[in-house]
Design goal:
CATH superfamily: Umud Fragment, subunit A
CATH topology: Umud Fragment, subunit A
Distance between the termini: 43 Å
CATH class: Mainly Beta
Number of helices: 1
Largest sheet: 8 strands, antiparallel
Structural class: mainly beta
Number of strands: 12
Radius of gyration: 19 Å
Shape: elongated
Strand content: 35-45%
């Protein structure tokens, strides 16, 4: 093998390793993120970064036994009240809910919601609850499939 080809193959392997450590791919399951993301969409996400309010994140949940994808609705220091069928974040009404609870988000925690509030199991439920930053594996950045919806999220 010529030296030029060997350098080319080694550089390809290095690029693949870098890509696999920086990005991930997952499928959306269910319709809790409609209309932003639909069941079956293939999503590219960026791993290990800082996350902020309104980011769509992929995280692990022991109780659900799968990767979940939701939007960060509140971060540390914000207070969430779910009462009278409404979700209030720092007293701002963001939508309807059938739950009744109050939450205070601590440092490195997130309150997540699906965009389709009526269909989403999210931080309002005891099974999911408040998300620790340790369980977040990435931020959704790009829809790969279906091709007719290809683009930045």
């Amino acid at each position: 093998m010529r030296k030029g080809k060997l350098v080319f193959y080694i550089s390809e392997i290095i690029i693949i390793i870098i890509i696999l450590n920086v990005f991930g791919i997952t499928y959306v399951q269910g319709n809790s993120m409609e209309p932003t993301l639909s069941s079956g969409d293939l999503v590219l996400y960026l791993k290990n970064m800082e996350y902020k309010k309104n980011d769509i994140i992929i995280f692990e949940s022991d109780d659900v036994n799968m990767l979940l994808i939701k939007r960060i609705a509140a971060t540390s220091g914000e207070v969430i009240e779910v009462k009278d069928n409404h979700i209030l974040i720092d007293t701002k009404d963001i939508g309807e809910s059938c739950y009744t609870k109050s939450f205070e988000i601590m440092e490195k925690e997130y309150f997540v919601l699906g965009d389709n509030l009526a269909e989403s199991e999210d931080s309002r439920s005891e099974r999911i609850g408040i998300i620790s930053q340790k369980t977040v594996i990435g931020r959704a950045i790009f829809r790969i499939l279906p091709l007719n919806r290809l683009g930045k999220i």
